[in-house]
Write a structure and sequence with these properties.
single chain; 174 residues; 2 domains
């Protein structure tokens, strides 16, 4: 009895999987060889614990601190967090910065910081909220809800990107 070899399409699929595995391994090796250290996976919302504090600088803002949970090492992309104060589109947080920042690797006590200015308008308009709905950008289906230190008036809110230094997370607005 003769054995049957796999079909040409099976060979093609196997070659594609092997190429993807080799590319991933080569990328990790290249990062390590370039002195960038080991490659970490991107953080998801469940990897992190969050804290919110009120700050008075720049007219007042909320400083969001993210830390990896015990045993987790991951990185936050240098973009603003996905956040909103309510369920309507006008309470969604927009970007305060016009460029992407460096990624922040989190592990142990290392933290990442983002500043949220809940009100960027110079009028008496806005809605009061006492909670923030938050997730890592790209992981919106797993958001968490944080109680604010105090109720804030929200009108055209913005947030800085994630930063390794809290002084870089002050959301200055014009």
């Amino acid at each position: 009895m003769r054995s049957r070899f796999a079909s040409p399409s099976a060979h093609l699929a196997l070659a594609a999987v092997a190429a993807a595995a080799l590319t991933a391994g080569a990328t990790a090796t290249a990062h390590a060889a370039a002195g960038r250290g080991p490659v970490t996976r991107a953080c998801v919302t469940g990897d992190l614990s969050f804290d919110l504090t009120s700050k008075t600088q720049a007219g007042g803002y909320l400083l969001l601190t993210a830390k990896a949970k015990p045993g987790v090492t991951c990185h936050l992309r240098g973009v603003f967090p996905s956040a909103s104060f309510g369920s309507s589109a006008d309470t969604e947080v927009g970007p305060a910065e016009h460029a992407v920042s460096d990624d922040v690797t989190l592990s142990g006590s290392k933290a990442a910081y983002a500043g949220i200015n809940p009100k960027t308008t110079n009028d008496n308009q806005g809605k009061q909220f006492d909670r923030l709905h938050l997730s890592v950008t790209g992981d919106e289906s797993n958001s968490v809800t944080l109680k604010l230190p105090q109720a804030v008036t929200v009108d055209r809110p913005v947030a800085t990107n994630w930063h390794a230094d809290p002084t870089d997370a002050v959301p200055f607005t014009a």
